Amino acid sequence: MVNSNQSELKKYSSKRSAFIHILIAVFILLPILVFVIGWDSFSARPYLIISVLPPIVIILHIYFSTYYCIGQGKLFYKSGFLKGEIPISQIKEVIKNITVYVGVKPALGLKGLLIKYNKFDEVYITPEDNEVFVMDLLKENDQIKVSS
Question: Which of 40, 94, 107, 144 has the fewest Cβ atoms within 10 Å of its own Cβ atom?
Fold first, then answer.
């Protein structure tokens, strides 16, 4: 995705909401608690702990790999296994400080940006600073409509 000449790309971290931090804490602490409380079960069948590892690994992968890049005339996004790119020339509108609960969401926070592009496509992202991100998009395409 972002392999060719990364020096031209500006990278933005994703804003992380309290909910995502709580979710990670629960997914890490709950198996430990179950392991401690049910020591007899786990000592007899240690393979049971393996069943809780995939969700933890997936959530941590999403947490640490969510970011956005602007450069080479494109907006790149990555969140876990979800990644894509949008030609900035195709972006029609950016709605700021909105929270979206359905659709394509490579995001970890609330009050992000809804990027509308092509005719009916949209993606929701949550850069740490919406204003800086929008200003950088406008530098690439000043025809983008920005609304709140």
Answer: 40
